[in-house]
Amino acid sequence: MEANRQKEAREREQKTAARRLRVQRDEDQARHRTEAMEKFRERRAREFALAQEREAQRQAALQELELRAHATAEAWWTLLSRAQVEELFRTAPEAATLSALARQLDQYLAGPMSPAQTRLTAVLALELDTAARSGELVELRTTDLGEDNAAVYVERRPQGGGTGQGQWVETSALTRAALERWLDVRKDLVQRAHGTSKLWVSLWMNHDGVLDDDGHTTIRPPGMPLEENGLVTSYRVGRLRYDGLPQLLPLKLEALRRAVETERRRATAATPSP
Fold first, then answer.
1. Are 158 and 172 in contact (CB under 8 A)?
2. Which single residue of 98, 104, 123, 179 could bond 149 by disulfide (Cβ 3.0 to 4.6 Å)?
3. What is the pTM for the complete model shown?
């Protein structure tokens, strides 16, 4: 009897310790998300203040140009060197293509779309904002979306492995509209599949790809979490299916991600330090 009581006491202690660990882990995750959101808001406040300062400087520079142009009775662009004029009108092909892609997605949102096109439009719009890897995209959950879809929390996963770091990323008006359309479609699909918090879900019935001893496989209903291969496949199929995309999208989603990341770095480098 004494041995049984001691065994039960040890089991209770182990369960209590495990429960405490789970509570601590949940508290740490909640604190990390809160800290990340606070840093995001602080960064956005600094960026907003910097943007206001740059706009004031731009307006002052324009006024100076106008005064000088009127004073010399010449067009304002004659005040610039040839190199400066070329720089003003030069647009990197990558940036032009990404801007054209955003305009194409906006055109899609202005009309009716199939569920597949709705999902792809949301994926592409989010990719333009976050430069997320395909593995990062499929891990997104609806709980990673901020209020009114104004921001998204992305767990960065380094390509070479290692510990990732979460980041709140502000979404564009295009992405907010695309997510709103997709979430309406997703809601019906998830209800039929008994619910999941994953942001991206399947559209059609499929199977899990594993055969049992009788050669049968488990059928998965629509609304199940979309795997990374499914996301990549939907990108490749959609690229060929929808008007305008073959000219704007590279063959691989990873190539699009790298183009977005390159453009973000270029824009950051071009932004003057406060």
1. no
2. 179
3. 0.65
